[in-house]
Design goal:
With about 80 residues, this protein is an all-alpha fold. About 80% of the residues lie in helices and about 0% in strands. It has three helices and no strands.
Length: about 80
């Protein structure tokens, strides 16, 4: 690599570093806002699993247990109705 090629490569690297720094400066407020929202969400999440919505999987498991606990005859009567 001759001197002009090296200088060109260094200029490209220099410009890319400056471009990345500008991009970081642009994204920094967004990252801060994200961290703030994430911290607020963590305050509202109940202990023991981090899921604050309706636990559909738990409700389905309970429904399965209830259906399995029903006698076979009762299940067949409900299907006929």
């Amino acid at each position: 690599m001759d001197k002009p090629e090296l200088i060109q490569l260094l200029r490209i690297a220099h410009d890319e570093i400056l471009q990345q720094r500008r991009r970081i400066d642009e994204l920094e407020p967004k990252a801060h806002a994200y961290d703030t929202v994430a911290a607020a969400v963590r305050l509202n999440v109940r202990e023991g699993g981090g899921y604050a919505g309706v636990d559909t999987a738990w409700r389905i498991a309970k429904a399965i247990e209830e259906l399995q606990a029903q006698p076979v005859a009762e299940t067949e009567e409900n299907q006929d109705a």
